[in-house]
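ARCHIVE RECORD
Type: protein–small molecule complex
Small molecule: beta-D-galactopyranuronic acid
Source of inputs: curated submission
Record status: active
Notes field left blank by submitter.
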Amino acid sequence: MYLKEELERRGVPALLKFEDGREVTADNWEERRLELVDILSREEYGYMPDEKFKVSAAEAAKPARDCAGKAVTERLTLTVSGSKGDFSFPLLICTPAKKPGSKCPLVLLINFRPDFPDKYLPAEEIIDRGVGVAMIYYNDIALDKNEWESGIAGIYPRPEYSWSKITMWAWAASRCMDYFETRNDIDFERIGVAGHSRLGKTALWCGANDTRFKYVFANNSGCSGDAITRCKRGETVEIIYRAFPFWFVPKYNEYAGREQDMPFDQHFVVAASAPRVVVCGAAEEDIWADPESQYLSCCAASQAWELLGEKGLIGVDRYPEPGDIFTKGKLGFFMRPHAHYFSRYDWNRYLDRLLI
Ligand code: GTR
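STRUCTURE (tokenized, with ligand):
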């Protein structure tokens, strides 16, 4: 394990031990993985409604040729039906124009804006790599505010349902996956979920809950995302909960200033997608997210892949430097120069991993 002494100094909880003290082995990894998801649901992000949803899609506009004719963009309305009623939201899918019968890899971006393309979504560059991209706009699912009437929050409200906005956004990504499964032009072995910052946290949480996403791309997700919380620089539990209590369940706030008492740390959410592919992207100047703590959590999470005989993090036993790209294993990390942003550089690192 890289940076072992630093992980020990910070007192990061053991990944490969059950809550009841049993050792985790390759054979019982799935049981532990589900326990990780349960711990994180209970302590931090909340639970998704426990029921099966039905999903249907309708055209919101005629499919249009895009990117100089290299792509087709579809604007759909997805309707999710559950025990409490129907809920609809827009879903955009842009795929390479291709021969009938061929399938493309696809990345679903949970985005900050409904615009397409968008500064965080360089569609033409993605299409030119032979990859399709889908997008949902997070405020269409539930507003990024401390209110519980909008969108899905109004239909499955708190406290009847113990969830949070991060969990609602992640839940919506899974409903998109339900729809992708009905299509015959997508390569199901290569569907990824991506997000930046608060939506990078969401992408990690989505991957943990939904094993159908074989790739998880968490960009600059930092505090309550990929960064180890204990002794982290920049944002802390206290700060993030004060500003964004609705991203979490109230229990998370009990750890404000008491991070050492958490029965988990953020390497749990990274490892909860093992042995699928996870790539965590950090940015040199993003001290608020804390690249060192982001790397540390990959160092700790990597044990899950190794336990399963997979290549986890292929990194270095030191803190990362700008320009470091460690994406050869199934758990990847890279540190881009400059600031907090979802840049083309980041996209290309994720696509490089998707296309290996
Ligand atoms: C910040 C928040 C970060 C990060 C960021 C973002 O204000 O403190 O954790 O999520 O927002 O999502 O842009």
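CURATOR ANNOTATION: The chain is about 30% helix and 20% strand.
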